[in-house]
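Narrative summary of target 7.
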Amino acid sequence: MISYRRGGPLVGEPRWYTHRSMETAVDLGTRDCVEILGFPVDRVGVDEAMERIARFVREGEPRVVVTADAAGLVLAQEDPEFASIVRQADLVTPDSVGVLWAARRVGKPIGHRVSGVDLVDLVCRRSSEEGWRVFLLGSAPGVAEMAAEQLRLRHPGCNIVGTRHGYFPADSDELVAREIAAARPDVLFVAMGMPRQEKFIWVTRSIIRAKVAMGVGGSLDVHSGRVRRAPRWVQRLCLEWLWRSLLNPKKLSKAKHLPVFLWRVLRYRP
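Modeled conformation, tokenized:
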């Protein structure tokens, strides 16, 4: 059983932040996880991840979901604050072929990726059925609004209660959090890139109190139509990361973490 402490102080937290719970343990005994580079990754598929998210919404307490790819786990190893967030998250989904490979290597395979792009779409579909209140935060000005429009067209009745761009400094986090809190979201998607999005979620969760808060990277760019998602055959070959890197050379800075991840997994000893 893997067990981590939840709610302990993080490096650099602002004075206005008050911890929800200082000494609550996250007991992963009831979660089927694989440990990768010292971090728990839930062995879930898309359907099970959605079941967990639905349960979090029903329970009503603020929950944090991390979509973990290989680059994110490398960054977490190098950033103690980010590492603490990943270890204390309520759900960590496998969001890259590298993570799937690492899970197979330690004898705990995971069937498929569970990406932020897919979860945004599925949550919005569930919102159209059950009225979940969804807020989209992140990307460049106008992108969240475009994504909301496209998601409403795809899922009529989807209850997106607010949008905001992600171009603001960390010293404005409290102000932005209070703006979002006024919309009373059940689910908050934050598309600001790792680890900025997770740090924003963590330090503002007691203000926003979204039942589910999840970092989703470039998902709003995809759902807005600004960025094309890889064709299904590319996704099936687990080469979506290469597709996105070729379309957007800026993504190459993230892809460079893949060989580092592979090397660290090969050398890792718990």
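Confidence is low (pLDDT under 50) at residues 1-26.
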